[in-house]
Specification:
The complex is a heterodimer of chains A (116) and B (122). Chain A is α+β, with helices and mostly antiparallel strands and 116 residues long. Chain A is built from four helices and six strands; from the N terminus they run E-H-H-E-E-E-E-H-H-E. Chain A is flat, with a radius of gyration of 16 Å. Chain B is built from three helices and six strands. Chain B has a four-stranded antiparallel sheet with strand order 2-5-1-6. In chain B, strands 3-4 form a two-stranded antiparallel ribbon. The chains are: A alpha+beta (116), B alpha+beta (122). At the A-B interface, strand 1, strand 2, strand 3, strand 5 and helix 3 of A face strand 1, strand 2, strand 3, strand 5 and helix 3 of B.
Chain lengths: 116, 122
C-alpha cells in the first residue's frame, strides 16, 4: 500500500536554526533515508511556504493568490511516499523523522479502487 | 524547476462524496474521467513530466507527533480547514507561469484549489 507522509513544521524554527542545528537535522533525515530506504518510494523537501502560489478557477476565470491556501502555524515542509503494509507501519517509520518532534506528520493512504 | 501541486478539495464536496453509495461513487468518478483525460492530453501535448497520487478519504488520516520521546497519535487530518488535500502532482515545469497553466487545468481547481509549491534547493 502507498502511504503519503506530510511533514508539517513551523517554518520559523528552520529559519532561526543555527548552522549546527541544520546539519544535525540534515544528518538525521539522511540516516532515516538509509534506514527506511526500502519503503521510501518518493519524497521531496519544499521551499519556504512564502513561495507558495494558490490557483482557483471560478466560472471559468483563474484567480491566482500568493501564499499557501491555509494560514497555519505549522506548514507543509516536505513529504515522503512510502510503499508499506499500511498506516501502522508508516507510523512506526515516521517516528524517526526530526519533523515528528518539532511538528506533526500526517499520514494519508493512497486511493485504491474497490475490488469489483 | 520542480513543483509540487497540492490538490485541495472543498470539504462540502468531500462530505457529499462520503454519503454516496459505492455505486454512486463509481458513477461520479466515471463522470469526472473526461475532465481528467483532457488534462492528461494537455500534459502530453506540452511534453511535461508529471507524476501524481490520489489519496483515500481524509477521514482515514492519522497524525503522529513525538513529544518527549513518546508518540502521540490522533485521527483525522492535521488541520481543520475548508479544503482538504485529495492528491498531488509533482511536475517539472519551465517556470511558475507554466505551473499555473497546469494548475488551472486540474479539475480540482474549479471547486477547491491547487497550491503550487516549488521544491527546495533549486
Amino acid at each position: 500500500m502507498k502511504v503519503l507522509a506530510l511533514i508539517y513544521t513551523d517554518p520559523r524554527s528552520w529559519e532561526t536554526a543555527s548552522e549546527a542545528e541544520r546539519e544535525d537535522v540534515g544528518a538525521r533525515y539522511r540516516a532515516f533515508g538509509d534506514r527506511a530506504g526500502e519503503c521510501i518510494f518518493g519524497g521531496a523537501a519544499l521551499a519556504s511556504p512564502r513561495s507558495a502560489t494558490t490557483v482557483r478557477v471560478r466560472d471559468g476565470e483563474t484567480f491566482v493568490t500568493d501564499g499557501p491556501f491555509a494560514e497555519t502555524k505549522e506548514e507543509l515542509g516536505g513529504f515522503y511516499l512510502f510503499e508499506c503494509s499500511g498506516l501502522d507501519e508508516a507510523g512506526e517509520l515516521v517516528a524517526a523523522i526530526p519533523g515528528a518532534e518539532r511538528g506533526a506528520i500526517e499520514l494519508r493512504a493512497a486511493y485504491e479502487e474497490a475490488a469489483a | 524547476m520542480k513543483y509540487l501541486l497540492l490538490l485541495n478539495n472543498d470539504v462540502r464536496d468531500i462530505e457529499s462524496w462520503q454519503k454516496l453509495s459505492d455505486d454512486g461513487k463509481k458513477a461520479l468518478r466515471t463522470n469526472e474521467i473526461p475532465k481528467w483525460n483532457e488534462l492528461f492530453g494537455w500534459i502530453a501535448e506540452q511534453g511535461l513530466e508529471v507524476e501524481g497520487l490520489e489519496l483515500a478519504d481524509p477521514a482515514d488520516a492519522r497524525v503522529i507527533r513525538i513529544r518527549d520521546g513518546e508518540a502521540i497519535v490522533s485521527d483525522g487530518p492535521f488541520a481543520e480547514t475548508k479544503e482538504l488535500l485529495g492528491g498531488y502532482f509533482l511536475a517539472e515545469c519551465k517556470d511558475l507561469d507554466q505551473a499555473i497553466e497546469l494548475a488551472e487545468r486540474v479539475p480540482v481547481a474549479a471547486k477547491g484549489s491547487v497550491e503550487i509549491r516549488p521544491l527546495a534547493g533549486q
